[in-house]
Amino acid sequence: MSDALLSVRDLVVEFPTRKGILTAVDSVSFDIGRGEVLGVVGESGAGKSMTGSAIIGLIEPPGHIAGGSIELAGERIDNLPLEAMRKVRGKRIGMVFQDPLTSLNPLYTIAEQLIETIRTHLKLSERDARERAIGLLDEVGIPAASRRIDDYPHQFSGGMRQRVVIALALCAEPELVIADEPTTALDVSVQSQIIDVLKNMCAEHGSSVMLITHDMGVIAEAADRVAVMYAGRLAEIGPVRDVIQDARHPYTKGLMGSIPTLMHDSDRLTQIPGSMPRLTDIPPGCAFSPRCPKAFDRCFSVQPACERHEDREVACLLYDEGGRP
Amino acid sequence: MTEALVNVEHLSRVFDVSKPWLNRVLERDEKKFLVAVNDVTFEIRKGETFALVGESGSGKSTIAKLIVGLIRPSGGQISFDGKNVATQGSSSMRQLRSRFQMIFQDPFASLNPRWRVKDIIAEPIRTFGLEGEAARWQTRVDELLETVGLSSGDGAKYPHEFSGGQRQRIAIARALSAQPEFIVCDEPTSALDVSVQAQILNLMRDLQDEFGLTYLFISHDLSVVRHMATRIGVLYLGRLVEVAEGKTLFKDPQHPYTKMLLDAVPDLEMTGRARKPVEGEIPNPIDPPSGCAFHPRCALANDRCLSEKPELKLHGTTETACFAVDEGRV
Ligand SMILES: Nc1ncnc2c1ncn2[C@@H]1O[C@H](COP(=O)(O)OP(=O)(O)OP(=O)(O)O)[C@@H](O)[C@H]1O
Ligand SMILES: Nc1ncnc2c1ncn2[C@@H]1O[C@H](COP(=O)(O)OP(=O)(O)OP(=O)(O)O)[C@@H](O)[C@H]1O
Ligand code: SF4
Ligand code: SF4
Ligand SMILES: [Mg+2]
Ligand SMILES: [Mg+2]
After folding, report:
1. Domain A4-92+174-261+268-319 architecture
2. CB-based contact (8 Å) between B55 and chain A?
3. Whole-prediction pTM value?
4. ipTM of this predicted complex?
């Protein structure tokens, strides 16, 4: 796809461990269009954060990208020198993490941090940078922004800190924002505020978003498309409404059925037996086969590839050419 | 109406959150207190699941710890099966204690990493020395492991050899081993993946049917609470603002705070349900707002709400603490 802002192809991330090589991300391919919000869901350890870290070039050694390519607006960014990558980060790709305290330095005021980031990436005078910082805080909904900007992070509540982090991520007008569990540490009532702020800010500034979360409800509200990861691989990707209302991959189906909802009474939740395998012990064939109610003989030996069916891609042998048992 | 198993009356707990004495003197600060639980009254009926919901810091875990006796109340009382827990002698207290158990959020922190799983599960059996069971504890542990969907061979392993969901199963097996009637579950699935959460919630309901258990179920996830609860109490800054039947609460919430919480839940069904953006954040609990603590976030607040504290009052089958509801202003 030529109009994609971000294009990830066959990405592989490996960690050498004592038990051999752990493949945290295994041949993952997807695109994010301009202005699009791509949600990424999956169980803990499925490789969601690792995919995000690979894109921003922040995988902790000894982990490394062992294959594939990542292009931002048609330009390879997975093999950039450190210094060049540091410029991409912050300027062209903004980041919002789960715990706002890791993104904010407790020793500096909000003003100092915002102004510094703005001036690193944009040629603005101190005064103009401050104006811009106040404008951004105002946009993310910090009341009395011109006064509160000189406060320290600890003087803000968790929800307000996360608003500041969103302002910080957007202050250089990045093309892409990677938000990794931006609301997980926050209260239910504050979560929806933060998702609204993130979504609206990115829409107004024309940024695309990769929204990583394990909360399907958040995805339903905020994302255009959703990618479902399982054991380091992509299981299914497609428009959010289609995936939620008509899941194709047996894992996605199980996942949707296991979420209790506010609207329906149900006596029992759908249960996927067992749990995700450790990445050092992925079974041969389809990684989901030991838990899959639909598994048939080929599933235990053939690894399904992600195949496109209209605007949906599914990695399941039930859907491949003549693959049905 | 079914009988109450647990009665909580005018329960309060205050924490001293003052700075150390010397700093206080130097900085001329006063002593500071935080009222984590403020005059809370409710009952838990035999065989039901009573759920507590509320934002972080609303006092859910503090109530759980007060009920199982991990901390002492600053005021009010708790009775179990009609007996005031505070006035029991040590031997009858011990007997009472064997009738309730607790499951925590983090299944790793609550399991001793150096013990084998079978010893972890057998610990309550030994502590409470049930009916000569100490002798046949090994068989009992095997049965328990199977009840929670593990295999008897798992008893010889250590907790780190299990996944999060399996560890929570071990914690449940441990809680069941003393054959309790009542289990306090504080965010039992919050640390787990949804697919594993579904397994644990199904298991908890099966065990309730099989053994007639009563649960106090704490969660900040309203969808999970809706799935599990018979009745629900909504907490805001240490006070109960609404108590209702599970179905009623979700269909017909009364208190403005309950409505706000329900509105904040993301809509998975994509019905296009219009969400009202939530107003404001939780105030500082050390210095809570006067009158109704919810008034700074409430669209219906008036002068009375700023000065008087609303009490829980019965309206239909729902108890609500709100003047707007009392006065029919909603
Ligand atoms: N430093 C490391 N060394 C070895 N393996 C690692 C390291 N960091 C992460 N991993 C492995 O990489 C896999 C992917 O991890 P990742 O953090 O991407 O998961 P995730 O999908 O973001 O999960 P969560 O929902 O828990 O955040 C995990 O299974 C983890 O065990
Ligand atoms: N030992 C303590 N000392 C001082 N303050 C405490 C103590 N324990 C709890 N608190 C305070 O009491 C209030 C209620 O805390 P509690 O842990 O009961 O909340 P909760 O509803 O369980 O919240 P969460 O959803 O975050 O678990 C909070 O403001 C908390 O900071
Ligand atoms: S490939 Fe086979 S095991 Fe894997 S999800 Fe499809 S049916 Fe199930
Ligand atoms: S008592 Fe007043 S402030 Fe409190 S919830 Fe009711 S209307 Fe709002
Ligand atoms: Mg992660
Ligand atoms: Mg708690």
Report:
1. 3-Layer(aba) Sandwich (3.40)
2. yes
3. 0.89
4. 0.85
